[in-house]
């Protein structure tokens, strides 16, 4: 399950890299500056998406487990 989050994060980070590079080039920056900014942005984007994805997945799985246990033990509460 977490491998799919990493794969999705990587795909989105690569896409973000190219988008940021194109925006930098269209803004008139040098290619080296565009590359460094795009790389930095892609790394931060990868980290952010990975953390957010893992957090959401943990919340959803926890909720599913709680719901399943509630059904099996009966709805006493």
Structurally, the number of domains stands at 1
Low-pLDDT residue spans: none
Q: How many strand segments?
A: 0
CA radius of gyration: 20 Å
Q: What class would the helix/strand composition place it in?
A: mainly alpha
Shape estimate: rod-shaped
Distance between the termini: 32 Å
The proportion of residues forming helix, as a percent range, comes to over 70%
Order of helices and strands: HH
Sheet with the most strands, sense and barrel status: none
Determine the mean pLDDT.
91
How many separate helices? 2
Strand content: under 5%
Summarize the structure.
With 77 residues, the protein is mostly helical. It has helices at 2-26, 31-73.
Helix and strand topology:
Layout: H1 2-26, H2 31-73
Helix pairs in contact: 1-2
Walkthrough of the structure:
- With 77 residues, the chain is mainly α.
- It has one domain.
- It contains two helices and no strands.
- The relative contact order is 0.13.
- The model has no long low-confidence stretch (mean pLDDT 91).
Give the tags:
about 80 residues, rod-shaped, 2 helices, about 0% strand, mainly alpha
